[in-house]
Design brief:
Elements (H helix, E strand, L loop, with lengths): L1 H9 L4 E7 L5 H19 L3 E9 L3 H13 L4 E6 L1
Parallel strand pairs: 1-2, 2-3
Amino acid sequence: MINWLNEYAEKPNKKTVINFKLTYFNTASSKLLLDILMKLEEMHEKGHEVLIRWHYPEDDEDMEEAGEEYADIVDVPFEQVAYS
């Protein structure tokens, strides 16, 4: 995924929208998520239009909080999307 994202970042689409819809992640995968988000932040800083959508079950406060924490870490437009 990171290799693909590095290649994509060289010549991205006019607008990049990344949707995360996870039911679970652990410490190792949270590091990878942060790597992905940081790469998206680099793209945004270079003037590319980037949007991150964090989908979480409406009854899962932990997943909602995780999205909020990631949104605070990176300077990229970030939407929280609850679903049932």
